[in-house]
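Sequence, please.
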């Protein structure tokens, strides 16, 4: 994890995380990251206006969902979802 997480625009908390959308390819990584609040589960269904960030304190969500390319820039690794479900 090397991205700089923004402060929550609603409550100014720094306790924010990125929202992961879709099916994780690596369930172990996924559950671990969710448990550590590094990511939040966005669910398996994506729309065209999904948020990118979630505040762990007030649950506010904002931003625009990262696509695969942006994820790789942020994390320097493949977007960890599988192709199944699409
Ligand atoms: Zn907040």
């Amino acid at each position: 994890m090397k991205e700089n997480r923004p402060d929550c625009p609603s409550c100014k908390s720094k306790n924010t995380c990125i929202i992961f959308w879709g099916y994780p390819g690596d369930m172990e990584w996924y559950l671990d990251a969710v448990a550590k609040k590094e990511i939040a589960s966005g669910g398996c269904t994506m729309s065209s206006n999904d948020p990118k960030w979630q505040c762990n304190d007030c649950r506010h969500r904002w931003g625009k969902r990262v696509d695969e390319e942006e994820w790789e820039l942020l994390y320097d690794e493949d977007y960890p979802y599988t192709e199944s479900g699409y």
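The chain is about 20% helix and 20% strand.
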